[in-house]
Amino acid sequence: MKHLSYNRIAASFSRTGYILALACFFCLPGKATFAQVQKEELTGPISHQLHNAPNHKSLYFPMTVKRFYRSRDYRQVWLMPERGEAGHAWQAMMLLDCVLQYGLSHSDYHPAELTYDELRPIMERPASVRPEKKAAFDILLTDAMFTLLDHLHYGKLNPELTAAAVDAGRGDLRLDTVLTAVLKQPDIVLAMEAVQPKSKAYQQLQYWMHKWKGLYTGDCYEVPEEQIRKVAINMERLRWAGIADGPYIQVNIPTFTLSVFLKDTNYRYPVIVGNKKHPTPLLAGTLTGIHAYPAATLIRALRVAEELPLVQLNLKPNLRSQLEFVFVSKYPVSMAEFNAPEWYSKAKRAVTKGNIGIANGADLAAELLRLQPGNSQLPALRKGVNAGQEMSIKLKRAIPFKITYLTCLIRDGRLVTFDDVYQLDAQLEQKLYQDLPEIIAKKVNIP
């Protein structure tokens, strides 16, 4: 398979950062203007607004914003006079203007309050703008950056990590810690982009979106809006998945495939998944072991047969053992070797009661056990399976396991779409392109 050049992607992003930085250079006001602004000018107004707001309706990340400013002794973040730091404000504003290339919506980042018409007099004629107004702008821009970091890393509609949960400190990314590090960089664009998922699938979709909503905007190139939205919702799903570097296992429902991602390569296996009435849940778990069962015991235990009666499987009591792949998650779903060739020959394989069936269980088990330290468990498993025995093997090193629902991917440099098996795309698209709803985050009023 031909893969995209990640040097090309990185270079393209670097050009984006360079263009924004260059634009910031020309937008920066002179040093004489900044000299009129004192370092501590906004400390009082910022502290007052964060502690005396009448209700909580404007900020998406109120606790994080308060924690962040408290760590700075309530000094302004974006309107600082020293070291030319005000250039970060221009970069942040331009970054918000470009969120379409990340599959996000500008309307989610305080667009009514964060305007160039509001920022320009603050920068060019600071003495003419009330400190309270400057403080409000600074706070809202900080909240917008926290919101963007959250959306780039976790996703806008993450079902497991809502904005309120992230604001309370859950998740692997501390927004205030990241923004502190971002502000130390001359180019905040690249630093903000760095929180995005690192999986190849995400980076390829992001480059596709960057190309069509960034590089080619205004040119003679056109791409249907339907494709733009399709890519956006699948980038969102990949943010939810939180896929890191390999090795890891991924079952993607619309493609009916299980993939084992290693450092330099990956392996694919056909699978069967839950039907529309009993959908296989999307989840992130950990594969911890392999259990061998007599064939009839495993099939009946997993309740996999719905459209195909058990008698059609022609099970025999002396068949070799079949394998269940044991993973830890909060959902009662299993994955097992399931020898029913007529199912795997179908193009659409959503046929079970939610469980996942794989045709080549022995091959998958061998590949997973080769990843284990010492590589000593495989001979014992093969011997037990061939003898039709029941046995369990606990993996010495657990492997991340993801079930995803990706209805498009980049293959050989082209966008490829897949059947929306459970009819989920339209609902997610509608939610993603609405303004950030009240249910996603609490807010705090800023005067």
Automatic annotation (TrEMBL):
Q: What is this protein called?
A: L,D-transpeptidase scaffold domain-containing protein
Q: Which domain of life is it from?
A: Bacteria
Q: Which GO terms describe its molecular function?
A: transferase activity
Q: Which residues form the L,D-transpeptidase scaffold domain?
A: 64-206
**What CDD domains does the record point to?**
YkuD_like
